[in-house]
Specification:
Alpha/beta knot, alpha/beta, elongated, 9 strands, Trp Operon Repressor, Chain A
């Protein structure tokens, strides 16, 4: 799989994307991550990528010409998707990350300043993506987030692919608590159920804890989830315990 990131600040991304799991995946040839300087696709001597917006507003807007040229030069003929990182985009989540992992090439355009010329949105990009309801100086950090999240769904990137299935949001719930050695620290003990050897009991405990955390922090995830009979039973148990406490 190949990621192509278009930005006016390539240095912001190069260090972020050359470490850890991503670096290993690139070295193995599973992933390609290429960062493109938008200024390389300008034609004037000043390499201008932005200009004042029509209508008299403050700030600057990224021009359409270099963005069109960059995407058209980079885009593969098949299985490619072009995305613009912008606060106006659809909310990026695990579901969308898994969907993007199905493409052979993902092109990410990093927004900057007051945004990009709307003709880029209307006639060039396939999706607009936002990583949250807040504004960043530019789309570079958002692009790094997208690459990291999407890569986890690409076979071979994560050493133990089974772990991806248990990540928060992948199953539609927040993750259950995790513990490691020592068994006791400053009087704080690891729950005894994890040493029971009863895998069914451990799985049920983990599911209950995931439901507890999701109910407390992200109840919206439960509202949009098709609950199993076991999950419904555990939720009732959790709510009763809350009421009695």
């Amino acid at each position: 799989m190949r990621f192509d990131i278009i930005t006016i600040f390539p240095g912001l991304l190069e260090s972020l994307l050359t470490a850890g799991v991503l670096k290993k995946a690139v070295e193995k040839g599973i992933l390609q991550v290429r960062v493109h300087d938008l200024r390389d696709y300008t034609t004037d001597k000043h390499r201008q990528v932005d200009d004042r917006p029509y209508g008299g507003l403050e700030g600057m807007v990224l021009k359409p010409e270099p963005i069109f040229r960059a995407v058209e030069a980079i885009r593969e003929p098949v299985e490619s998707v072009t995305c613009l990182l912008t606060p106006q985009g659809e909310r990026f989540d695990s579901r969308l990350a898994e969907k993007l992992a199905g493409y052979r090439q993902v092109i990410l355009i990093c927004g900057r300043y007051e945004g990009v010329d709307e003709r880029v949105v209307e006639h060039l990009v396939d999706r607009e993506i936002s990583i949250g309801d807040y504004v960043l100086t530019g789309g570079e950090l958002a692009a790094a987030v997208v690459v990291e999240a999407v890569s986890r769904f690409v076979p071979g990137v994560v050493g133990k692919e089974e772990s991806v299935r248990h990540d928060s949001f992948t199953a539609g719930l927040l993750d259950f608590p995790q513990y490691t050695r020592p068994r006791e620290y400053r009087g704080y003990r690891v729950p005894s159920v994890l040493f029971s050897g009863d895998h069914k009991k451990i799985a049920r405990w983990r599911l209950k804890k995931a439901l507890e955390k999701t109910l407390a922090r992200r109840p919206d995830l439960l509202e949009s989830r098709q609950l199993s009979s076991e999950e419904e039973e555990l939720l009732e148990e959790i709510k009763k315990e809350r009421k009695d406490s």
